[in-house]
Design a protein that fits this description.
It is a single chain. By secondary structure, the chain is an alpha/beta fold. It has three domains: 46 residues; 160 residues, Rossmann fold (3-Layer(aba) Sandwich), CATH 3.40.50; 104 residues, no CATH class. The chain is 51% helix and 17% strand. It has 14 helices and nine strands. Strands 1-2-4-3-5-6-9 form a seven-stranded mixed beta sheet. The chain has a two-stranded antiparallel sheet with strand order 7-8. A hairpin with a 4-residue loop joins strand 1 and strand 2. Helix 1 packs across helix 2, helix 8 packs across helix 12 and helix 10 runs parallel beside helix 12.
């Protein structure tokens, strides 16, 4: 009996030792595999353009979204924000430049000119500053073009297309910018204006890339879809409730087409300021004013087309001029459009 127990203990001890050895070998192999994976990941991130792009993109997304953790600051220094003025066709423009300060003689960085369009947030809005800093930490020189007319008054100012050309030329001339890696970006109306500006023959050969977030392609078509409260995609119509900012901008533009100052003030109260207006005053509106009211309060697509044709020729020509559809043939940049279906 004692011999049996002794043999059993030796067998169990031997198996335990073998298990420990197997566990040690498995742990060593797992550790080696992890080290190899980390080394491969580091090589991929540091030595391949796809890896570097993916790494910077992940850091950028975590910086601009409310994710709680913002690791960009772990790997980059704090950008500087600088207010600059630059010549325009009429007077001077004002913009903010965000960039990482490099040593003297360092090669120029990739750069992007951004236009926020009819964004009323303002230059000092925390989201605007965060975007500029995040792009700068990603390696860009960032110039945020500012339009007091469009941002503060909710107007469409066609002169801003020309101003974007001047701003681009200013940015291209800075010694900390690599002119071969210089592009543009914009949001909503700002994206569409950037598309038109990038097609300008003075700079279209120098715009390397363009990122357009939520642009319109054709301004008259946008107006018709707003008026009919519907979107049209591949001949399919769907109900649509336009954004309040979109409605406010178009209301400002359409009301300005009226010659009668009293009617302009009346429709501004009714459609923009949301002030109650008496039916007696509305009953006396002229035919053009009634058309503007119908377009902004909503109508059928068919009637919207008829009403649009009754608007002043100068207004309709201006709508064409601010449409990328009229200029896309001159674009030479690599264009990325980001848009949802709504």
């Amino acid at each position: 009996m004692k011999q049996f127990v002794g043999n059993l203990i030796r067998i169990l001890a031997s198996r335990t030792l073998m298990s420990r050895r197997r566990l040690a070998r498995w742990t060593a192999r797992a550790a080696l595999g992890l080290v190899v994976a980390v080394v491969v990941l580091i090589i991929f991130v540091t030595l391949t353009p796809w890896g570097r792009a993916g790494f910077h993109t992940a850091l950028f997304v975590s910086q601009v979204l409310e994710l709680g953790v913002k690791p960009q600051g772990w790997f980059t220094s704090q950008p500087v924000r600088q207010e600059v003025t630059y010549p325009q066709a009429k007077g001077e423009g004002v913009a903010d430049i965000y960039r990482i300060t490099d040593e003297p003689g360092a090669p120029g960085r990739a750069a992007v000119l951004i236009f926020l369009g009819a964004n009323a947030a303002g230059r000092d809005d925390k989201d605007v500053i965060n975007l500029g800093n995040a792009l700068a930490r990603s390696g860009f020189v960032v110039m945020v073009h500012w339009s007091p007319t469009m941002a503060l008054r909710h107007n469409i100012d066609p002169d801003e297309i020309e101003n974007l050309v001047w701003a681009f030329q200013y940015l291209a001339g800075q010694d900390y910018v690599d002119p071969q890696r210089l592009g543009m970006g914009g949001f909503c109306v700002g994206a569409s204006f950037a598309l038109v500006a990038a097609a300008d023959p003075r700079i279209n050969g120098d715009v390397a890339f363009l990122n357009a977030f939520g642009p319109y392609y054709d301004a008259p078509d946008l107006l018709l879809q707003v008026a009919s409260r519907s979107t049209i995609y591949q001949d399919q119509r769907e109900p649509w409730d336009p954004d309040i900012t979109t409605m406010r901008v178009l209301a400002n533009e359409l009301v300005e087409t009226l010659e009668d100052s009293r009617e302009r003030a009346l429709l501004e109260d009714l459609l923009i300021n949301r002030v109650p207006v008496s039916e007696q005053d509305l009953a006396g509106l002229s035919v053009p004013a009634q058309g503007v009211r119908r377009l902004l309060e909503g109508t059928s697509l068919e009637e919207a087309r008829l009403l649009y044709q009754s608007l002043p020729a100068g207004f309709r020509e201006g709508m064409n001029q601010i449409s990328p559809s009229a200029h896309h043939g001159n674009l030479k940049a690599r264009v990325t459009i980001m848009h949802d279906r709504n």
